[in-house]
Amino acid sequence: xxxxxxxxxxxxxxxxxxxxxxxxxxxxxxxxxxxxxxxxxxxxxxxxxxxxxxxxxxxxxxxxxxxxxxxxxxxxxxxxxxxxxxxxxxxxxxxxxxxxxxxxxxxxxxxxxxxxxxxxxxxxxxxxxxxxxxxxxxxxxxxxxxxxxxx
Length: 151
Description:
This protein is α/β, with parallel strands linked by helices. The protein is built from five helices and six strands. A hairpin with a 5-residue loop joins strand 5 and strand 6 (93-94). The longest helix has 22 residues, at 129-150. The relative contact order is 0.16.
């Protein structure tokens, strides 16, 4: 099992690495050429700055039983299609039961923005320590579940 992080502007990279290290699970951070990262624990893969280059690279190297951390519903859907686990930086698990509805909501919101001519999104609210703690707990549960299923 490995953990793959869609790491462009991802606020939970530090938490992922800390929890993964505690469980001796390897982590790969993927980012585009505009967000170069460095890490003492994780392998870092820098992908060309194409529109979805990081997403496609991540999906091409993830396998069944791996964990994908991404805020992109499309990446999560492709990970689930490979029988990998997927988790949002909020701690919400993407599942085969909820992904279709999430993708539909994303599509409808995009259509509504286009119709109104408002293409800019209001930024998300500031991340809190409670958000980080919720993600850590949820991520920890996912690792335990994935490791248990592996054995």
